[in-house]
Design brief:
CATH superfamily of the largest domain: Regulatory protein AraC
Structural class: alpha+beta
Helix content: 40-55%
Order of helices and strands: HEEEEEEEEHEHHHHHHHHH
Shape: globular
Largest sheet: 5 strands, antiparallel
Low-confidence stretches: 1-12, 14-18, 172-178
CATH class of the largest domain: Mainly Beta
Distance between the termini: 5 Å
Strand order of the largest sheet: 1-8-3-6-9
Number of strands: 9
Mean pLDDT: 79
């Protein structure tokens, strides 16, 4: 992968210009509003590219971005963007922190939208009609952000409109769940799942690995949690844990210089051999060959 070019001080913008943990602007007003080195950020971001092209790298995936594209990134995933555009990217972006998010942005379908997921879809190619609509929303976001009497609730409403538009494009979203208590428990589980992976580091291995541990962390019976998740997402508790573990394993194999035994330890495997068995069972290939083949193609 080429090194991302033209980084811009987004954290400085957020810290100095956003009194309540939010900011919105136009890409062309900055050195580069997309290009970044590979890492996690401590804020959420929604970008709308209107002119330009490049590649978004996140976890073990990459997505080609060109023309009208809506992009979601969040503190749960590490990512980088490599510009392949001969001209400066144009479009819009809004960034915000956890302190800006309130109940409305965390409830119901919005809680399982692309903005709050580690896996799933994070880029949406737009047709012209949808792009024009979203451009009008981002224009209002930018105007409101820079107004003397900026109203955070109005900004949240605009963000909700953008997220709802993304949900229409995400055909994998379940649409038949109306029980708010089930959605709430699902939301709590997904947040707990992500928080445990966010804690992973050189001196902190993954502590929660079983369905029972997550159920205890949420003060519910394992069978109840499993039934709720099957209803709201179509997947069991164990499936969610395994899929998220695989995402993290692939990401670390691609972007972490540690050896496989160290990565296995960080991810909570007592022996590297157990990690190798897990990885091959879910991917059909060895961790070493996965790492080497992707390195050769970068």
């Amino acid at each position: 992968m080429k090194a991302a070019r033209n980084n811009y001080p987004i954290l400085t913008v957020l810290n100095t210009s956003a009194k309540s943990g939010y900011y919105a602007g136009k890409m062309q007003d900055y050195t580069s509003a997309l290009s970044k080195g590979y890492s996690r950020r401590n804020f959420y971001k929604i970008s709308l590219l209107t002119v330009g092209e490049g590649t978004l790298y996140y976890t073990d995936k990459q997505a080609r971005i060109t023309g009208y594209t809506l992009v979601f990134t969040n503190p749960l995933i590490s990512y980088s963007y490599e510009s392949q555009s001969a001209e400066k990217e144009q479009g819009y972006f809004c960034i915000f922190t956890d302190q800006f998010i309130n109940g409305q942005l965390r409830e119901g379908k919005l809680a399982t939208s692309p903005l709050f997921k580690a896996g799933g879809i994070h880029t949406f190619a737009l047709n012209e009609k949808t792009a024009i609509f979203l451009i009008s929303i981002f224009e209002r976001l930018v105007d409101e952000t820079h107004s003397e009497d900026c109203k955070p609730d109005l900004l949240r409403a605009y963000i909700q409109l953008i997220m709802h538009e993304a949900l229409k494009l995400d055909s994998a979203m379940p649409t038949n769940v109306s029980d708010s208590s089930k959605l709430r428990l699902t939301d709590l589980f997904l947040k707990l799942l992500e928080s445990k992976f966010a804690e992973c580091g050189p001196n902190h291995e993954l502590k929660f690995r079983s369905a029972q541990q997550f159920a205890q962390g949420l003060s519910v019976h394992p069978n109840h949690l499993n039934r709720v998740l099957k209803t709201t997402t179509g997947k069991s508790t164990t499936q969610h844990i395994s899929e998220r573990l695989l995402i993290e394993a692939k990401s670390r194999l691609l972007h972490d210089n540690r050896n496989i035994a160290e990565i296995a330890y960080i991810l909570g495997f007592s022996h590297a051999s157990n990690f190798l068995i897990f990885f091959k069972r879910h991917t059909g290939r060895s961790a070493n060959s996965f790492r080497k083949s992707h390195a050769a193609n970068s």
